[in-house]
């Protein structure tokens, strides 16, 4: 595990393009000054000991030294010891619908993005809980195994799109069954499946799968995304909307009745998401009611400083920059390491 002890100092990297800009400006200004004295080629012949390549090399050595020094200040570290940490929390498997209908814009910015925003905020509120992520359309796939690594959860969440599942549809039952197999063996922890979908075009017995989850003590909570009135489905990369075989614009509607039936069978709650955060607050209250148990997680408890090797690199670069002269040394004039 690699990290920086003081990552805020990485903002100092912004000084590097400023250094390049300053150096380029200095070169341009110097060339203008030389032209005022006469023809640049003639002036260069009058100063045979001046080497432009040496000047460039000195700058880039100093530039590299500054860049590496910034990384030294930021404090690069590698994790050296894994430790098992016990925390009290619950387990949550999120099943996110990524079918094409989730691109409808009856919820801003669209159904899928609204769901991702809500999950991102929910993840930020977790401290001791474990979370996993399943995406589904015509089939279901595990995007992130259950974990307490919330940074990875948010990273995977941000990359989700309908293109992740090639088979279109809404296989809610398959997603619930996959979630049931994704929990840890810990029988003491409260477990729940959070299903976010518009409930349209379900292709399997989702109610039966939810009932099977409830029989194992795992609740199934549903978040309905969309409006019952429906909305067209935008076609990516154009201003057109998806059409059926007869050329009519497809209108996708939130199937609230189906969502409510699944939630009832899974002994969970149903809540409809809108352009506010009310659905998020309702879900958080429901999760807070769940039984919490000790959760074991592997974390790095000790980190080794790795700045020493970088500091040596900085020292060598500065020494090299110092010993390279702007002018060709008369003693080593015949040594052709640098041409004019």
From TrEMBL:
Q: Where is the VWFA domain?
A: 91-287
According to UniProt, the name of this protein is Membrane protein
Which InterPro entries does the annotation name? Aerotolerance_reg_N, UPF0353/GerABKA_families, VWF_A, vWFA_dom_sf
Which organism does this record belong to? Answer: Tannerella sp. oral taxon BU063 isolate Cell 6/7/9
What Pfam families does the database record attribute to this sequence?
Answer: BatA (PF07584), VWA_2 (PF13519)
What residue ranges are annotated as transmembrane? 6-28, 59-78, 307-324
Keywords (alphabetical) are:
Cell membrane, Membrane, Transmembrane, Transmembrane helix
Classification lineage = Bacteria, Pseudomonadati, Bacteroidota, Bacteroidia, Bacteroidales
Which portions of this protein are annotated as coiled-coil regions?
A: none
């Amino acid at each position: 595990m690699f990290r920086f002890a003081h990552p805020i100092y990485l903002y100092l990297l912004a000084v590097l393009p400023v250094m390049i800009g300053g150096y380029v400006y200095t070169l341009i200004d110097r060339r203008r000054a030389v032209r005022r004295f006469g023809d640049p080629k003639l002036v260069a012949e009058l100063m045979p000991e001046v080497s432009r390549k040496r000047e460039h090399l000195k700058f880039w050595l100093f530039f590299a030294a500054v860049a590496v020094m910034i990384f030294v200040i930021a404090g690069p570290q590698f994790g050296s010891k894994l430790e098992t940490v016990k925390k009290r929390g619950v387990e949550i498997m999120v099943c996110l619908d990524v079918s094409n209908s989730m691109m409808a814009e009856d919820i801003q910015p669209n159904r899928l993005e609204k769901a991702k925003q809500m999950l991102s905020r929910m993840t930020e509120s977790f401290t001791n809980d474990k979370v996993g992520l399943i995406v589904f359309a015509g089939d279901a796939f595990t995007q992130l195994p259950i974990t307490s690594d919330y940074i990875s959860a948010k990273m995977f969440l941000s990359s989700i799109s309908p293109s992740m599942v090639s088979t279109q549809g809404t296989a809610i039952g398959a997603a619930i069954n996959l979630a049931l197999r994704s929990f840890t063996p810990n029988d003491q922890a409260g477990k729940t499946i959070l299903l976010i979908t518009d409930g349209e075009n379900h292709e399997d017995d989702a109610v039966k799968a939810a009932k099977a989850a409830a029989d194992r003590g795992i609740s199934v909570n549903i978040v309905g995304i969309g409006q019952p009135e429906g909305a067209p489905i935008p076609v990516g990369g154009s201003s057109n909307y998806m059409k059926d075989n007869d050329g009519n614009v497809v209108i996708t509607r939130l199937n609230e009745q189906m969502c409510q039936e699944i939630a009832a069978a899974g002994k969970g709650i149903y809540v409809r998401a809108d352009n506010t955060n009310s659905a998020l607050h309702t879900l958080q209250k429901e999760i807070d009611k769940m039984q919490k148990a000790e959760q074991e997680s592997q974390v790095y408890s000790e980190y080794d400083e790795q700045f020493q090797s970088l500091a040596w690199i900085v020292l060598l670069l500065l020494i090299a920059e110092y010993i390279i002269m702007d002018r060709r040394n008369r003693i080593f004039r015949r040594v052709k390491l640098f041409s004019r």
